[in-house]
Design a protein that fits this description.
Elements: H1 4-14, H2 22-27, E1 36-40, E2 43-46, E3 51-54, H3 57-60, H4 69-81, H5 94-106, E4 111-117, H6 120-137, E5 145-149, H7 158-163, E6 180-183, H8 188-191, H9 198-216, E7 221-226, H10 242-252, E8 256-260, H11 274-278, E9 284-287, E10 299-304, H12 305-313, H13 315-318, H14 331-346, H15 349-368, E11 374-380, E12 383-388, H16 404-414, E13 417-418, E14 420-421, E15 427-430, H17 438-461
Bound molecules: pyridoxal-5'-phosphate (PLP).
Length: 462
């Protein structure tokens, strides 16, 4: 094995890292790369011999925890038998057929088919194309715009990045592309008027959506895309009444609903899907992350009977479905997904996330609620966040230059805890593997609390 120093040098010289300050990394100012060498349960290990609790499950994906040899065995088995074949022109494998059957049966809404990709971003690109295709085939060529929400995250490729509603992902990249509209985010803490109840706030958000559709012309609006629980935009569960109100508007205007279940799917919220939890009946469902727990890259665009029926009916007229990737339905990824879903079902990880999630919320409240810089503690299942503000009475934010959220995350990391500074505001996000125990939750909360106290002390000394 090559030594650590050489790995770091080679990395620094050659890898363009996502979401990394390039000059700070090139100059060494932000330190060496973390060379991750192993993982077990909720822990990862680096080449310097340090162990961290990964309270973000990688990027909210390693739901079954690290080091599950059952999945490694399934991957190896498939690799030995057949490492690759494509799925064009009706080719398949046993693992893929099995996986598709179980996804169609378990998916929210009336699912009919799954189109496979390799990332959440590409699956959402597929969803946009499906909306356009569907409306072209139905004879509504103008019904193409997609409404997403401010602070929604749907990926960072060209169109998925356009649907994302966070400017950090647009700046200097010529995004968003035309054809995407953004409507208000359903975050009561920041969006509600003084004294406005959650239900009233939800009705207002739905009314705003309706006004937007009317203003643009309903004949131009193809779909609405949303995460059941806002993720990267700040980990914020919807206010009471939000989803019924929104769905009523969408139905009124014949607008498809794309549920982006990339984070919420497969147990994260304490239910099988976020849609199940909130009574969402989507026309299209995006899955990735938890589908393989990150053990292999795999995503799916799940298509309802309603949308698929139009596609099949038009086939004699338009010919073959002209969309696909070399790696669509990759057999090794499908084998990994089947092994992961076996674990999710056998260990009832959704139920576990619900029960341990209640403990998590309680502990966060016990530890953080009295801290004067804590504005809001929120979450559902094993998704949680603490938001920090300068003044909790007026909800005045910290000066962004102070990077309070990022500092708390950094100090936590130095103490052996990975919790993510979310890109919008001063928010510390948590999404531990669903196998986390209550004792481990206590440790996560204690470490996060100590990190917060340390940064509060530093701020007080300024
Ligand atoms: N959709 C949601 C809700 C996500 O959280 C993410 C990634 O975090 C994506 C889509 C994009 O997935 P990927 O990074 O695999 O392209």
């Amino acid at each position: 094995m090559i030594d650590i120093k050489t790995i770091a040098e080679r990395d620094r010289a050659n890898v363009l890292h996502p979401f990394t300050q390039l000059k700070g990394f090139a100059s060494g100012k932000i330190g060496d790369p973390t060379i991750v060498t192993g993982g077990k349960g909720i822990y990862i290990k680096d080449a310097a011999g340090r162990t961290y609790i990964d309270a973000f499950a990688g990027l909210y994906c390693v739901n079954i925890g690290y080091g599950r040899t059952e999945v490694a065995a399934a991957i190896a088995r498939q690799a030995y038998q057949l490492a690759y074949y494509h799925t064009y022109a009706a080719h398949t494998t046993e693992e893929l057929a099995t996986l598709s059957d179980r996804l169609v049966r378990m998916a929210p809404g009336k699912a009919s088919k799954v189109f496979f990709g390799v990332s959440g971003s590409d699956a959402n690109e597929t969803q946009a194309k499906l909306v356009w295709y569907y409306n072209n085939l139905r004879g509504f060529p103008k019904k193409k715009k997609i409404i997403s929400r401010e602070r929604g995250y749907h990926g960072c490729s060209v169109f998925s990045g356009s649907m994302t509603g966070i400017s950090f992902y647009h700046d200097h990249m010529d995004l968003p592309f035309p054809g995407v509209l953004h409507t208000g985010t359903p975050h009561h803490y920041w969006g509600a008027e003084p004294g406005e109840t959650e239900d009233a706030f939800s009705r207002r958000r739905a009314a705003e959506l309706e006004e937007l559709i009317e203003r643009e012309g309903p004949e131009t609006i193809g779909a609405f895309i949303a995460e059941p629980v806002l993720g990267t935009g700040g980990v914020a569960p919807p206010p009471m009444g939000y989803w019924p109100e929104i769905q009523a508007v969408l139905r009124r205007y014949d607008v498809l609903l794309i549920a982006d279940e990339v984070i919420c799917g497969f147990g994260r919220t304490g239910a099988d899907f976020g849609s199940t939890l909130y009574g969402i009946e989507p026309d299209l469902v995006t899955v990735a992350k938890g589908l393989t727990s990150g053990y292999m890259p795999l995503s799916g665009a799940i298509i309802s009977e309603k949308v698929y029926a139009v596609m099949e009916q038009a086939a004699d007229r338009v010919g073959a479905f002209s969309h696909g990737y070399t790696y669509s339905g990759h057999p090794i990824a499908a084998a990994a997904a089947n092994a992961v879903l076996d674990i999710v079902e056998l260990e009832r990880l959704a139920d576990r996330a619900r029960v341990v999630g209640i403990h998590f919320q309680r502990r966060l409240n016990e530890r953080f609620a009295q801290l004067e810089i804590v504005g809001e503690i929120r979450g559902v299942g094993l998704l949680a966040a603490v938001e920090f503000v300068l003044d909790r009475q007026t909800k005045r934010r910290f000066d962004p230059e102070l990077k309070v959220g990022a500092r708390i995350s950094k100090v936590a990391r130095d103490r052996g805890l990975i919790a993510r500074a979310m890109p919008h505001g001063d928010v510390l996000g948590f999404a531990p593997p669903l196998v986390v125990s209550e004792a481990e939750i206590d440790e996560i909360v204690d470490l996060a609390y100590q990190a917060t106290k340390q940064v509060m002390d530093e701020l007080a000394k300024r």
